Amino acid sequence: MTEPEESLITDEHRAKIGVKSEPRSVTVNQEDAHRMRDLLGDTDPRYADGTGVAPPYVLSGLGVRPDRNLMPQVLPNGLLTQIEWRFFKPLLIGATLQAVSSVIDIRDRLGGRYGYSVLVMTQTEYLDESGEPVAASLQSITQFDPKGARS
Fold first, then answer.
1. Rounded to the nearest 10 degrees, how much is the dihedral formed by the CA atoms of 22, 13, 84, 58?
2. Which residues of the chain have pLDDT under 70?
3. Most CB atoms closer than 10 Å: which of 12, 16, 30, 96?
4. How many domains are contained in the chain?
């Protein structure tokens, strides 16, 4: 595949920027917190059993992904290339959070191993029962076409 001479991102793709997903409920539970702490060998007393507080990395194991229906698909393959987490409040054991995702940016990328690619940035916000933010993740997904790979 040769480099396109103009962007493959259409107005239809751009229209998905800012559209929020339906909220999805996720519960922070003691078993997941315990298992992840043990797996990582985390002995931080702030997150020990009985404190009522889960380590922040527990959110990464809850399996919340951006809604595929909201994700613009410009090229056939995608790869998670970056994730950034922000935390605003402690994660409390037993808390049920609402996860809301949206696409926040889409842009072309020229060059690189696969030649032309597209960067899609998504955000997932985790809100408590009063709608206040507890945490957020920002993900960059690089879409590419393997036919554009350079030798």
1. 30
2. 1-2, 150-151
3. 16
4. 1
